[in-house]
Automatic annotation (TrEMBL):
Key words of the record: ATP-binding, Nucleotide-binding
One Gene Ontology molecular-function label: ATP binding
Lineage per the UniProt record: Bacteria, Bacillati, Actinomycetota, Actinomycetes, Glycomycetales
Short name of any one Pfam family annotated for the protein: ABC_tran
Protein name stated in the entry: ATP-binding cassette domain-containing protein
Protein biosynthesis is among the record's keywords: no
Boundaries of every ABC transporter domain copy: 1-207
Length: 207
């Protein structure tokens, strides 16, 4: 995945007090196959904005993004349907990804086991704990086994055990040649990343 010269400004307020808030000022970012890259920056530095542009959920004012292969995206705020269970979410997303039913079931079982939330399979999303909701959010991004995986603060709500499982899962994807971009406002284990990029003053600066 390659992004270059990404610019984005939000518009704030109403006329005549309208102001532009520049967030990205020409950010460049590349994530290659078999690489785990960390995107780090303080609150409000524009990490989520850049991620939304990378996955095509938000239009940039300038710059280009190119992705080879399918991408999967785990948003910072889970987008789930309150009244659907975990199983029903996987079914729904499996359809949206056009996966054969048995492939979806297999992937779902694997993700329940990998992240350890099988026992919530039939629990409605509005009754899940924050950490389990984060697992569902991550599981949905992983369901179709995308070549490029973009995760926005994926482990913020995880307990230690899940945090370790998360990194096992990332390591496996990297070994299979996947590209992973992990956004965080802090990086605890720098050695788990191949590269770290700081988002500062609207630019992505290699560390
Ligand atoms: N839809 C929007 N409209 C206007 N301003 C926005 C919008 N979304 C984000 N912003 C502003 O853009 C800036 C960057 O926000 P963004 O969510 O990208 O930061 P972030 O680095 O992901 O922060 P955090 O670490 O808190 O998740 C912030 O100043 C934020 O208030
Ligand atoms: Mg964010």
């Amino acid at each position: 995945m390659e992004a270059s010269g990404i610019e984005k400004a939000y518009r704030r307020g109403i006329w005549p007090l309208r102001r532009r808030l520049p967030v990205l000022r020409g950010a460049d970012l590349t994530v290659r196959a078999g690489e785990v890259v960390g995107l780090v920056g303080e609150n409000g530095s524009g990490k989520s904005t850049l991620m939304k542009i990378l996955v095509g959920a938000l239009a940039a004012d300038a710059g280009t993004v190119s992705v080879a292969g399918r991408s999967g995206y785990c948003p910072q705020v889970p987008v789930v349907y309150e009244r659907l269970t975990c199983d029903e979410h996987f079914e729904l997303f499996g359809r949206a990804y056009r996966m054969p039913v048995d492939a979806e079931r297999r992937a779902r079982r694997g993700l329940y086991a990998e992240l350890g939330f099988e026992r919530y399979a039939t629990t409605r999303a509005d009754q899940l704990s924050g950490g389990t909701l984060a697992k569902l959010n991550l599981g949905l991004a992983l369901l179709a086994d995308p070549e490029v995986l973009l995760l926005d603060e994926p482990y913020a709500g995880f307990d230690w055990d899940t945090y370790v499982k998360f990194w096992d899962l990332v390591a496996r994807r990297r070994a299979d040649g996947g590209a992973v971009l992990i956004i965080s406002h802090f990086v605890a284990d720098e050695e788990r990343f191949d590269r770290i990029v700081d988002l500062r003053d609207g630019l992505a600066v290699p560390r």
